[in-house]
Structure formats: C-alpha cells, structure tokens
Write a structure and sequence with these properties.
The protein has about 375 residues and is of the alpha+beta class. Among the domains are: about 1-130, Beta Polymerase, domain 2 (2-Layer Sandwich), CATH 3.30.460; about 280-305 and about 320-365, no CATH class. About 50% of the residues lie in helices and about 10% in strands. It contains 18 helices and 11 strands. It has helices spanning about 10-15, 30-35, 85-90, 110-115, 135-145, 155-165, 175-185, 190-200, 210-215, 215-230, 235-245, 250-260, 265-280, 285-295, 305-315, 325-335, 340-345, 350-365; strands spanning about 1-5, 25, 40, 50, 55-60, 60-65, 75-80, 100, 105, 120, 150. The strands form 3 sheets. Strands 3-4-5-2-1-8-9 form a 7-stranded mixed sheet. A two-stranded antiparallel ribbon has the order 6-7. A hairpin with a 7-residue loop joins strand 6 (about 60-65) and strand 7 (about 75-80). The protein is elongated and about 85 Å long. It comes from Pseudoalteromonas neustonica. Pfam families: PolyA_pol, PolyA_pol_RNAbd. This is tRNA nucleotidyltransferase. Belongs to the tRNA nucleotidyltransferase/poly(A) polymerase family. Its cofactor is Mg(2+).
C-alpha cells in the first residue's frame, strides 16, 4: 500500500500558496484494509476514507467511466490494481494531476509541473469533455490564478468552446452552478471568473441578462468594487454577489436567482441593493426619501437589513459614503417609542401616523 499527496495541495505548495486542505490517494489497497486500520468510509459510490486521527481524506486509486449525461453520470471503478497514473489521468487539469510521494518525490506523468512553471491550464485527456462541470472549474481556476499570469491552453479553450456549443452547461443543476460561484467569491476573483465565462461564451449559464450586459467597462467596475471590498476586509458573499447584479433589473435578478438557485439572503440583498442604491448614494437625499427607504427595508424591526444595503452601496461606489450620518439619523428615528403616543391618548391607526411624522421630523434634522 502506497500513499500520495495529490491535487490542489501539491499544486498550491509548488506555487507557494497556503494549503487549505490535503487530499491523499492510496494505491494497492482495498476498502477492507483501510477499515481494518481504523479509517472511516464516507459515501457509498466513491472509495473515500477519513484518517482515524487527522480526519483528512484518503481515496483509493480509481478510474471513472462515463455512463449517462451530465456531471453525475459516472461509474467509479477501483481495485488494488489501479495505478497512480490511472488515477491521475481522470483528473481535469495537468496542474491538478501531480502527486507527491512520502519521500517528497513528485510523480508527474502528464507534465503538470512544466505547465505550472509556464502558467498554463491544460486538460489532461479527452475524457475532460465528459464532465460539463469542468467548464466552470477551469474558469474558476483561471480566475483564481489570474494574478500569477495563468492562461488557458489554446487546445483546452477549443475543447471548452466545443462543450459549450453542444449545450453541456444545460445539464448542470442550479445548485451546482451556484456552488462554483460561491467558491469563486471565496477566492476573491469573481470579476475574473465572470469575465472568463463571458470570453468563453458561457456567462449565460449564470444569467443571460448579465451576459447581454457584459462589457469591458462593467468588468473594470466590478474589479474596482471587489478591490475596495478586499481593502476593507469584506468577505460576506451576499454583499459581494450583489455587486455583479447591480446593473440588472429586479425581474432579471429574480430570474437569475432561479437559474442558479441563489440562497435567500443573497437573492434578497441583490434585490434590495438594486432598489435602493440610487437613493442611498445620492448627494441630495431628502428626509422623505430616506424614510421611504427605511420603511421598505423595515429598518424599525430589521436594522441589520438597512446596514447591509448601506454597506453594499458603499462597495458599489467603491468609496466610503456619508454612512455615519445615515446611521446616526436612522438610529435616532428608530429610538422613538410608540408608547409615548399611546400615553397622549392617541389610538388606532392614528398611532402609526404620529409615529411616521415623528420619525420624519427626526430625519429632517439631518437631511433637508
């Protein structure tokens, strides 16, 4: 039984990046052998096991055979006879098909180290085209390593284009597309991810409207917004994703939210930013406009919602706004207690009217 470090950990180590997780492949072993040594099997279809102490993933060397459509139509075949080279051949990119032995030696049958040195993302074999998810994965890797000068090999671009033209992206589930978006947001390279998809003709898988609106100007705007967010250590995915949809209409955002099955909080903030960014970024905002915005966002019961939209507007403008004045004014308006009107003998619907007027008068002390 031989154990090798594989995939992303080897790639990032060679690139001098922080290794976030380590995956291992085990050659020449059976499930029974690993279980006997205390490994815990996870999943029934794939021979993946958790180390008894470190809980890191150890997978038996395997091959995959396409059977059916989409990215899930694979039959996994594994045995003690599957070689390391066989296992590495099923991987997507050469830079992800490098293994490291326990003595530190690299096993690199498909030239991944050279492609790393040359900053090239190249598919390992023609089996690449059997998995449409790899279209998004390659775009995500190209975006993540864009700052290092990585580009997609010409032959891989041609294969990706062929897959896209054949409608392979339509076989992906909405949830899986969102997961790739989520990973790219975490990478801090979402503008690059969208731009690469646009160049490949694949951005419509996320949003036909966004694909139709895409331009170099929008790309630069998004880069500026994300650079600002990074400078402010903003990592909330709802705040970041909303920047990409700020140019869409409410209806287009709703369609997008179904196309890639956005989490509710991400969808809601995208819609709220779209609805209120013009008002909250205005240099001439009035108390009446601010009160209307507060009512629509239900600031009185959900102040965190207003604050999130305000932060999203700040990122959208890529500059700190007069946020403190807005927050101070709305906090003062929120502090008004309806009980004071009840004490005055005001009843029923008149309480709401009096409360609204009192809040407006507070806001008018800050905005005319």
């Amino acid at each position: 039984m031989q154990v090798y470090l594989v995939g992303g950990a080897v790639r990032d180590e060679l690139l001098g990046r922080i290794i976030k997780e380590r995956d291992y492949v085990v050659v020449g072993a059976t499930p029974e052998q690993l279980i006997k040594q205390g490994y815990q099997q996870v999943g029934k279809d794939f021979p993946v096991f958790l180390h008894p102490k470190t809980k890191e993933e150890y997978a038996l060397a395997r091959t995959e055979r396409k059977q059916g459509q989409g990215y899930t139509g694979f039959v996994c075949e594994f045995s003690a006879d599957v070689t390391l080279e066989d296992d590495l051949r099923r991987r997507d990119l050469t830079v992800n098909a490098i293994a490291k032995a326990q003595d530190g030696n690299l096993i690199d049958p498909y030239g991944g180290k050279q492609d790393l040195d040359n900053r090239i993302l190249r598919h390992v074999s023609d089996a690449f085209s059997e998995d449409p998810l790899r279209i998004l994965r390659v775009a995500r890797f190209a975006a993540r390593y864009h700052y290092l000068g990585f580009t997609i090999a010409e032959e891989t671009q041609q294969l990706l284009t062929q897959m896209i033209n054949q409608g392979e992206l339509q076989t992906l589930t909405a949830e899986r597309i969102w997961l790739e978006c989520e990973k790219s947001l975490t990478d801090g390279a979402f503008a690059e991810f969208l731009n690469i998809l646009a160049q490949l003709g694949a951005l419509s898988a996320i949003s036909p409207a966004l694909a139709g609106n895409w331009s170099d100007e929008l790309y630069q705007q998004l880069k500026n917004r994300y650079a600002y967010a990074q400078s402010q250590n903003i990592t909330d995915q709802a705040l970041l994703f909303a920047q990409a949809t700020a140019s869409l209409t409410q209806e287009e955002i709703k369609i997008l939210s179904q196309t890639i099955r956005l989490p509710n909080d991400v969808r809601d903030l995208a819609l709220q930013l779209n609805a209120h960014q013009a008002t909250l970024s205005s240099q001439t905002i009035t108390a009446q406009q601010l009160l209307r915005c507060c009512n629509q966002l239900d600031l009185w019961r959900r102040p965190e919602r207003f604050e999130a939209v305000l932060k999203a507007v700040e990122i959208n403008q890529a500059a700190s706004l007069a946020n403190q004045k807005l927050l101070t004014a709305t906090k003062a308006a929120k502090a008004i207690n309806p009980q004071q009107f009840i004490t005055q003998g005001i009843k029923g619907a008149a309480i709401k009217t009096a409360l609204e007027q009192a809040r407006l008068e507070i806001l008018q002390q800050y905005f005319n």
